[in-house]
Amino acid sequence: MSAALQANEPPPPVLRGGEGAVAVLTLDRPASRNSLSRAMLAALSNELAAIAADDGVRAVVLAANGPAFSAGHDLKELTAHRADPDGGEAFFRECMAACAAVMQAVAGLPQPVVAAVEGIATAAGCQLVATCDLAVAGDTAKFATPGVDIGLFCSTPAVALSRAVARKPAMEMLLLGEMVPAEEARRIGLVNRVVPAGQAFAAAMDLAQRIASRSAVAVRMGKRAFNRQLGLPLPDAYEAAGAVMVENLLAEDAAEGIGAFIGKRQPVWRHR
C-alpha cells in the first residue's frame, strides 16, 4: 500500500500504550462518544488478543479520550443497516455477537483489567465497565442502561450488570434507564472507587501497577478460578477452587512467596 493511501486511512479507534508491565487501551473516538461501532469492537478484539499472548503484561487499564467513556452501540450505524434487504437482521446479529465476544475476551483475559471512567458510560459502555475486573470513576462520571427509553431494552448489558451488582439495583437501572452518579455506582458495586474528576486514570494506573507487582502466575490463576467458581454450585465451587489452590501451591512463586514470608524478607517473583 502506498504512503499516500496509508496517510488517508483513519487513525485506529483504540490506542495501545503502557508503562512497565501495565498495558493501557484507550478508546479514541471522542466525536462519537466512543461508541462501540464494529470498527471499535474489532480494534478492541485485536488488542485484547495481543495482550492475552503477551507474558510481559501483568495488568491492563481501559480508558477513553473525550467527555464520554462510551455511549454504547453506535445507533447511527445500526440504523443505517435498516435499509439492508433483511431489515438489518444479519448486521444486528453480527454486531451483538462481536460485542459479546469482546466482553468475554475482557472477562477471560489472563490479566486483570481496570476501567478508568470519566464522563458517561451508558448501555454497552456501562456493560464494558461492569465486565472489567475493577473500575475507578471520576466523581462526575455517570452510568446508565437507558435502552428502555428508546424501546430497546438493554438485554446484553444486563448480562454484565447482573454479575456486577445485586439483582434489584440492576433491575432498577434496566427498567428506569436513569443516570446513576458515581457515588451511587460505588455503593451498588458497579465501581470500586470514586476519585476527583480527572483523576480516574491515575487512580486506575495505581491499582494496575500494584496488581502488576504481584506474582503474575498467582494473579492469572486467581482471576480464572474466581470467574469459574461464580457459576458453580457450592460443593463444585470449592472443588474447583481447591484444585487451583493445589496448582498454585506447586508453582515456583508460591514457594518463593511463602518462604519470603517465613523468612521475613521481600519475595522475588519469577512469574512461574
UniProtKB/TrEMBL annotation:
| Keyword annotations of the record | Fatty acid metabolism, Lipid metabolism, Transit peptide
Question: Which superkingdom is the protein from?
Answer: Bacteria
InterPro entries per the UniProt record, alphabetical: ClpP/crotonase-like_dom_sf, Enoyl-CoA_hydra/iso, Enoyl-CoA_hydra_C, Mitochondrial_ECH-domain
Q: Please indicate if the UniProt record lists Transit peptide as a keyword.
A: yes
The record's NCBIfam families line, in alphabetical order, gives:
PRK08139.1
What family does this chain come from, according to its entry? Belongs to the enoyl-CoA hydratase/isomerase family.
The job of this chain, per UniProt, is described as: May play a role in fatty acid biosynthesis and insulin sensitivity.
> What's the name of the protein?
Enoyl-CoA hydratase domain-containing protein 3, mitochondrial
